[in-house]
Amino acid sequence: MKNILSQIKTKNQYLISMISVFSVATLCLFTRDYLDYKFVGYLLLVVVSLLAMFLEILPVLLSAIMSALILNFLFIKPYYTFHISDAEDSLLLFLFFLIALINGVLTHKIRKTEKIFQAKEIKVNTMKLYNALLDSLSHELRTPIATIMGSIDTIQSKTLIISEENKQKLYSEIEKASLRLNHQVENLLNMSRLESGVIKPKMDWCDLNELVYNVLDNLKENLQFHKIVVVTDEYLPLFKLDYGLMEQIIYNLICNAAQYTPKGAKIEIKIEYNVDVNFEYNPDKLMPCTITISDDGNGFPVDEIDMVFDKFYRLQNSKTGGTGLGLSIVKGFVEAQNGRITLENKEDEAGEGAVFKIFFPALVMNTKEISNE
Is this prediction's pTM over 0.85? Predict the structure, then answer.
């Protein structure tokens, strides 16, 4: 199949080569009485050079040969013969053919060299990317695995006498390490799903208030030294979104805030609806839902804000750990539900800190009306 496609592609290139040369020659033929044949030669030389930038070497050689023959046959007197009476014209035609040939070959070789260089550069960048990922994974996966293995060895040790209280602490460490390990594996699987394009949101009615508190409960160990503030309306409507994707979005953003802010920092989760955002939606059916997750940490370097959602990207001066997948997964899951996410640093009296805002156009079910019924 590949051979057939290659043959078709080659035939098309020969066709393009012939059509290009014939088209320029035909246009020049109508003005032959007003143009010097040397000017026509320059035009044909330009055509050969342009073809060499895009076509394979054989179609380029064909265009060079055709250009020389057409120049002789149609534009050098006597017309419509390959005979040349003037020795100077013969020399010029030979030089034209030689220049066209060399120019076509050199241009093709330069293009080929550029492609090889680009391929090598892409390969080097890819290797750097995978090395960065492996370095991150070696830390992120090794640490919880070492914790689990060490705790199990201690519990199973026959030479050590461990109190029940210490056993419970070790079990707690195993649980936290397992959750951390599971989170990293889920991130890798989610990134794989995003890249393969298999994510299809399953829209259903979501209680975002309940969802946020479920995520906070799952992250209680990570958040024990942070101040958590949740701001929502008393009668927050239900939004038709993908519960699983939303859970991962909120989880990753809060986990990221907890990891990169100092102890005692405040993390605020705010849910609003019917706010003025730049979404094209049907006001009879869709309402914009806005989720804001902010903190009073150190914020993000201004020159890196545009790159934090890139796959595997980690801040230049960030502490060790992290795979650089969390925020890119968040962006992918948000866009899978036709939403958008923004990041900016705080610019108010509260000082520094990061502000993530997520906007969704979503169907709404008013819980206030349901509760009244």
Answer: no
